[in-house]
Each structure stands twice: as structure tokens, then as C-alpha cells.
Amino acid sequence: MKHDEQVRLLKQLIHQLDTGTNLDAGTVLRNPASAYTCPERAARERELFFRKHPQMIGMSGDLPEKGSFLTLEEWGARILATRDESGRFRAFLNSCRHRGVQIESEARGRRKRFVCPFHAWTYSSEGELVSIPKADHFGEIDKSCHGLIELPAVEKHGVLLVHPEPEGVIDTRSVLEGIGPDFDSWGFDHYVNVGSDVYDMPLNWKLAIDTFGETYHFPSLHRNTLFPIFHGNVQGFDHWERNHRMILCVREIDQMRHRPENQWNIREGAFPVYYLFPNVIFNVGRHSLTIVRVRPHPEEIGRSISHVGFYFDPEQLDSPEAEGTPQEFFESFAAIIRDEDYAAASLSQRSAESGLQKEFLFGRNEPTLHHYHQTYNEVLGLPPLEPA
Predict the structure, then answer these.
(1) What local confidence, expressed as pLDDT, does residue 322 receive?
(2) CA distances for 58 relative to 152, 177, 213, 258, angstroms
(3) What is the mean pLDDT of residues 53-69?
(4) Domains of the chain (ranges, CATH numbers)
(5) Banded model confidence at residue 76, pLDDT cuts 50, 70, 90
(6) Contacts of 57 (CB under 8 A, 6+ apart)
(7) Fewer beta carbons within 10 Å, N or C terminal of the chain?
(8) Dihedral, CA atoms, 279, 368, 180, 52, nearest 10 degrees?
(9) 354: exposed, middle or buried (C-beta count within 10 Å: 0-12, 13-18, 19+)?
(10) What is the pLDDT averaged over residues 76-98?
(11) What was the pLDDT predicted at 348?
């Protein structure tokens, strides 16, 4: 992020602290509780937000070298992502062209060849079919036409994007609008993956995303965890069509504001949080990046799966200034997001499912929530949320 932009955002936070104000979205909005429970809506979200839209599956650090691979199962399909022998990021259906058996079962690792466990058909990291045992017995087929089914895949600003459909198109300028330059400035393409976690929780995927949308709850829900570190109910917000950036206010800003502006650093006095439509949250620490990808459960509307990836600046991993060990990161993040935010939001899910509470409210001081849900409705072709 350019330094003048950092100063602008930090001054905005300082002004809010000095005046006791916050961002003002101008109105309170009503969001129907059915947004979190309606089967028809959930089916359309899965189709339009996930099956028909490019998906972020990880960062460059998830495929750190030639021959690296990553597997996942989402959108009703098994995916194999590789960095081939030329260094290119690629994605395929993790499915043998012979009988459809999954060819790679490990979550991640390094291989030059992928061998189907059923009949040992073998594929390269470029997806080419390179070997068929007893080919003379099997019968003649054109190997060049029976490689792994490839999916559109693009690596940009350190982000790995895959389109779930083989004929899909990835317009990186549109998909990553607004956030790419910041990611480039911080060198996220060089960050290394230090671990991952999964939270399977009883709440709709949008309720999980909602928990990242405001700091109004910090003094109450996080009074013993985040509130001693952050000023609650103070934030910055910028959006670009479907994506946005929220700036949380770290208490270190109280000391930093007295230094010359050319010494200000937004990753010391604030905490940037980015949203990538439809389901990814990027939490930017001083030397770390924590990414939460939230996906709907394939069968239960009131259940979601959050895939959490932890990434560090490699130059800071062993530094005395490092923000704790990776294991400490995993545990503290889960204690806050899973055990506080998601636990509270699961109670909102129960209220929505009761059918007795018809709507939830998004306050004037919660512009990020306005943006999430107005964007969802726009893509679904629904009318905008109405003022309370």
C-alpha cells in the first residue's frame, strides 16, 4: 500500500478516536432472517457464487516449488492443483480418466507423477497421461486426449484462482479489483504457508462472513481477547464493486500518532482486513497473513466449513520480532474466531431457524455488512435491503 494512502487511512482512524465517531453508512438496514435459511436461495448461491464464479483456493506459498501439489474437495468436485515442472500453476479434476478414481489422496506435498491407485494410470504435473500399464491388453487410445481434465487457473498477486467449470473464464482484473496493488506492495506472493485449520460450525456461511464485518462487538464479545489490543467501534472502509477493505484500529496507534508521518506504518497502527467476493477474508498482520475461506456445507444450509490458512513473511519466521510461533497463531485464532465469533453467530443461526425472528439489523456503524449483503442481493437479482 502506498505510504500516502497509509497516512490517509491512519488519519481517518485518529479523527474518529479524537471525535468519538465512526464510519456512518447513513441508515440502518433490515436483512431478512430467511437469507440464512431459505433452501431456494442457498441453491442459487451455490450455483452463482461458487459453481459459476472463480474461486480462490490458496496462495502462491501453498505451491512453493516445482512439483508441489495441493488437493481440495469443493463445489461438488475433487481438485488437484499443481506447480508443474516449468513453475506454472495449474488445476485439474482429481479424477482418473479411466474410471474416475481419485488419483491423489494427500492434502499437499511434492510429486512429479500422480498414479491412480486403481489401475496405475500415471499422469504428469502438467496433467498429461504418460503411462498405461499393459497398454497392449487395454486397447488403443490416444493419450494426448485422455489427460486430466484441466480447469482454468490463474496466479495473480500471490492469489491462486480456479474456475470450477472447465469452460469458465477468469478475469483477474474484475475478480481481484481493488485489492491486488496492496497485495503486491506487501509481497504476499513470497509468503510461506505454515499450517492450516478447518472449522466445521453450525451456522450459515454468510453468518460466518458477517463476523468479520465490524468492530462494534469488540468491547463485549472480545473484551478479554481482542479489545485490549484494538479500539472497538472504530474502523476504515473502502470498496471496489464486490470487494472491499476494512481497516481495524490497533491501540499502538496511540503512540504512533506522535511520530513523524514518514514513520507511520499502517500494519503497526492498524490491521487491514480484505474481503474477496464471495467468501474469502484476508487478515493482514505485521508480518503474517491469515486467510479464511468460508464455504457452504453441501447439504445443510445452517452449517458451513471455514478453511483457515496461515502464512508468514519468510524473513520474519525466526526473527525476535515475529508475532509468536505458528502453533500459537493457530490456537489464538481458533480461540477468537471459532470459540467467540462463530459460537455467537451460531446462536443467530438458531434464531433465524426458529422462524420467530423475521429480520436482523445492520447499523449505520456497520457499512461492511451493508456491502456484503447488498452485493449478494445484486448478484442474485434480488432487490436491495430496505432501511429499518
Answers:
(1) 56
(2) 15, 17, 21, 38
(3) 97
(4) 3-53+174-387 (3.90.380.10), 55-170 (2.102.10.10)
(5) confident
(6) 70, 72, 74, 79, 81, 91, 160, 161, 162, 293
(7) C
(8) 30
(9) exposed
(10) 96
(11) 97
- Label residue 278 left, alpha or beta by phi (over 0 means left) and psi (-120 to 50 means alpha): alpha
- CA distance linking residue 269 with residue 83, whole number of Å: 37
* Coarse DSSP helix, strand, coil percentages of the chain, rounded to the nearest 5 percent: 30, 30, 40
Question: What is the C-alpha radius of gyration for the chain, rounded to an integer number of angstroms?
Answer: 22
Q: Provide the 10 A C-beta neighbour count for residue 351.
A: 13
DSSP label of 342: I
| Amino acid letter for position 379 | V
pLDDT (0 to 100) of residue 345:
98
pLDDT exceeds cutoff 90 at 173: yes
Q: What is the pLDDT of residues 195-204, one digit of tens each?
A: 999 999 999 9
Q: Residue 320: pLDDT above 50?
A: no
Contacts of residue 180, defined as CB under 8 A and 6 or more positions apart, other chains included, come to 156, 157, 172
Q: Which residue is listed with cell 508521518? A: 261
What residues pair up with 244 in beta bridges, in sequence order?
Answer: 239, 275
**Burial of residue 328, with CB atoms counted within 10 A of its CB: 0-12 exposed, 13-18 middle, 19 or more buried:** exposed
| Mode of pairing for the β-strands spanning 192-201 and 304-312 | antiparallel
* Nearest alpha carbon to residue 50 among 72, 78, 70, 74: 74
pTM of the model: 0.95
Measure the CA–CA gap between 12 and 112, rounded to whole angstroms: 51
d(CA 361, CA 342): 18
Compute the distance between CA of residue 383 and CA of residue 362 in angstroms, rounded to an integer.
Answer: 16
Which residue bears the cell 450455483? 47
Here the cell at position 361 is: 439489523
DSSP string, 361-384: EE-TT-HHHHHHHHHHHHHHTPPP
In this structure, the strands spanning 280-284 and 270-276 are: antiparallel
Beta strands in 149-287 (DSSP E): 150-151, 153-156, 159-162, 192-201, 230-240, 243-250, 270-276, 280-284
Strand 288-296 and strand 304-312: pairing? antiparallel
> What letter represents residue 130's amino acid?
V
